[in-house]
UniProtKB/TrEMBL annotation:
It is an enzyme of class 2 (transferase). Residues 85-414 form the Prenyltransferase alpha-alpha toroid domain. It catalyses: L-cysteinyl-[protein] + (2E,6E)-farnesyl diphosphate = S-(2E,6E)-farnesyl-L-cysteinyl-[protein] + diphosphate. This is Protein farnesyltransferase subunit beta.
Length: 444
């Protein structure tokens, strides 16, 4: 990996990247793919064998088609109708940071996640976060930190790798020392080392099972906060590589079905470990490109499943990572104008079908908005708009220029300036002194 872009594990200096605008399809920003003649030909064919899955798929496509017809009418009035409704989304997000409906009580053990989903969405929409809000979020996340390291899903809850990842990301988004200094790095590293197993995998919390999410969460926070060390990553790359399935994507553990979320976790982990060579790139690419749906334009999470906007990032975010791996071995396949997936189709899906009328983004037409899908739909849109190639960010913004989002870092999924500032800050601190465990003995 290049050492200038945040992908490498080694200490690095960040440089400004130059920007250029590019339209890789040779079409204008106002061209709309789904309004072309015979677009219906892209619909799924069941070959005369109707199944429960094909019925669900047809229902989704009918909803998509209705939206396309509305768009066709709107476009006659306003050719620039593919608008990202930023103000409405920001209103929804800022309201959530102040007050949540009682229906979200079910997410009581995911409260750092709610902070992260909202803060990242606000940041990606290029809105500043007020000092008052920062201060409240810092106070709250601080109360979620466990005295023995890591963060729980709420104050007083057991530490768990998933909310630890969310809390660290949220604090990095705030981009200030007060936020960074909440993190007890010494205890965090001890926590991570306690969760590591001899085979290189990570438990999600003490006494739990292991899966590939644990690996990604552990490595991401270790890199961001600069507590990365050899003891933490021993055998991990090999364990992660065993999660690649015959299909090409990654399962949660070896021999499980390939899935978008696990695939992102596996690939991002291997990129952080600089061990991308351990997996079959072509098989992964084939699986990923086939997860982008032809008619809807968005991604599905698994083979034969329905489109869902959150996979715009979980699957879409894999492409910049894989592009970098392939660039070493397949320079012809990986040019500046070849993004490996159909970024116009993905932008159309998100802009036309996933914006809720009063702000927030949805999974697919017919679903309700929520903060999780708002975060990952916007993150996927950012991935489809920006592409980092040889130290240049190449942009392709569908619709008006104002639709442009900030560029999200494809490993950590916080915006690049936040990742850079946090890594630079923590690299300036001494490495925490920890008692390394009785090496390589599993606690379970
Ligand atoms: Zn989803």
């Amino acid at each position: 990996m290049d050492s200038c872009d945040g992908f490498s594990a080694k200490k690095r200096t960040y440089k400004e990247v130059s920007c250029q605008h590019n339209d890789p399809n040779g079409d204008s920003q106002t061209f709309i793919r789904c309004l072309t003649q015979d677009f219906d030909d892209q619909r799924c064919q069941d070959d005369g064998f109707e199944t429960a899955t094909s019925i669900d798929q047809a229902e989704v496509e009918d909803n998509i088609k209705r939206n396309i017809e509305v768009l066709r009418c709107n476009r006659e009035i306003d050719p620039q109708c593919l608008i990202m409704h930023k103000e409405l989304h920001l209103k929804y997000l800022k309201k959530g940071l102040q007050n949540l409906p009682s229906s979200l009580e079910i997410l009581d053990c995911s409260r750092p996640w709610l902070c992260y989903w909202m803060l990242h969405s606000i940041e990606i929409l290029k809105e500043d976060i007020s000092e008052e809000t920062k201060s409240k979020v810092i106070g709250f996340l601080s109360s979620c930190q466990h005295p023995d390291g890591g963060f729980g899903g709420g104050p007083g809850q057991e530490a768990h790798l998933a909310p630890t990842y969310a809390a660290v990301n949220a604090l990095c988004i705030l981009r200030c020392e007060e936020a960074y200094n909440v993190i007890n790095r010494e205890k965090l590293l001890e926590f991570l080392l306690r969760l590591r197993k001899i085979d290189g995998s990570f438990k999600l919390h003490e006494g739990s099972e292991t899966d590939i999410r644990g690996v990604y969460c552990a490595l991401s926070v270790a890199m961001l906060t600069s507590v990365w060390c050899d003891e933490l990553i021993k055998n991990t790359a090999h364990w992660v590589s065993r999660c690649q399935t015959y299909e090409g994507g990654f399962g949660g553990v070896p021999d499980m079905e390939a899935h978008g979320g696990y695939t992102f976790c596996g690939l991002a982990s291997l990129v952080l470990l600089q061990e991308g060579k351990l997996i079959n790139h072509h098989r992964l690419l084939r699986w990923l490109v086939n997860r982008q749906t032809k008619f809807e334009g968005g991604f599905q999470g698994r083979t034969n499943k329905l489109v869902d906007s959150c996979y715009s990032f979980w699957q879409g975010g894999c492409f910049p990572l894989l592009h970098r791996l392939l660039a070493k071995t397949e320079p012809d396949l990986t040019t500046c104008s070849n993004w490996l997936f159909h970024q116009r189709a993905l932008q159309e899906y998100l802009l036309i079908h996933c914006q809720a009328p009063h702000g927030g983004l949805i999974d697919k037409p017919g679903k309700s908005k929520d903060y999780y899908h708002t975060c990952y739909a916007l993150s996927g849109l950012s991935v489809a708009q920006h592409f980092n190639y040889k130290r240049k960010v190449v942009d392709f913004i569908l619709g008006p220029d104002d639709n442009e989002l900030l560029y999200t870092h494809p490993i950590y999924n916080i915006c690049v300036p936040s990742a850079v500032k946090a890594i630079n800050y923590f690299q300036g601190l001494p490495f925490p002194k920890v008692q390394l465990a009785k090496d390589d003995t599993d606690s379970d």
